[in-house]
Amino acid sequence: MPKKRNLLLLGVNSTYVANLIKSSVYFADFNFTEYESVATLIKSANKKELFSGLVTDLKFLMKLSEEDKLWVNRNFDLFPMLRLRINQEKLEAQNPECLLNNEIELIEFSNKASVFVPKGIRREPRSQLHLNFQMSYGDTWNPNEVISVTSFDISKSGAFIVDQNPMPDVKKLVLKLVGPNVIDNQPRLARVVWNLPWGKNTHTRMSGWGVEFEQRIEELGDLLLSYQR
Hints:
This protein is an alpha/beta fold and 229 residues long. It folds into two domains: 5-115, Rossmann fold (3-Layer(aba) Sandwich); 132-225, Thrombin, subunit H (Beta Barrel), CATH 2.40.10. Helix content is 24%, strand content 27%. It contains seven helices and ten strands. The chain has helices at residues 15-23, 38-44, 58-62, 66-76, 88-92, 103-115, 221-225; strands spanning 5-10, 30-35, 53-57, 81-84, 132-137, 147-154, 158-162, 172-177, 188-196, 208-213. A six-stranded antiparallel β-barrel has the order 5-6-7-10-9-8.
């Protein structure tokens, strides 16, 4: 029997609603991990825990602080997301019809989550900082076949690298930080976590690579502290 996929249940603080979702026929092939708030998720989430989608309460999302909204947008932009619309009166009466999401929405979300490549949650803050890199596809630095690229956001452990070129099927990239004030410009091996063809990213509208550096770039530390988001 194939292993069940994991969905994140965030801000659904009604036990009745949570049980309705978890017992729904549309989610029979999924497990759920529950967090009551963004703060507990950031504090407790295991980086190695992979999720195939996010189920959350629409009112919960609307009441988030701007900082928490930004964190959710940045971390779950690519995830299938189901925003629950709940009728409070029917909820208080424990009427299953308290969920206003229609069958089509539930099926579409379930289908997307069933084929989505599971992803973990970023723990280290990213800075929206546009740094220049030279990049070579594959796991070997080839100075004769490099292209110039820019980071959209970055931390000491990873980055989103904007790349509008056709994307080869590679698992590794080699990146070299360039610029007049760069001290450590050694080529850095990066693991491809995901890549995004042109027009698919609903938040940044950019194509590129989500990467994790094989070794943290400590030189970025002081610079990034000034721009953390």
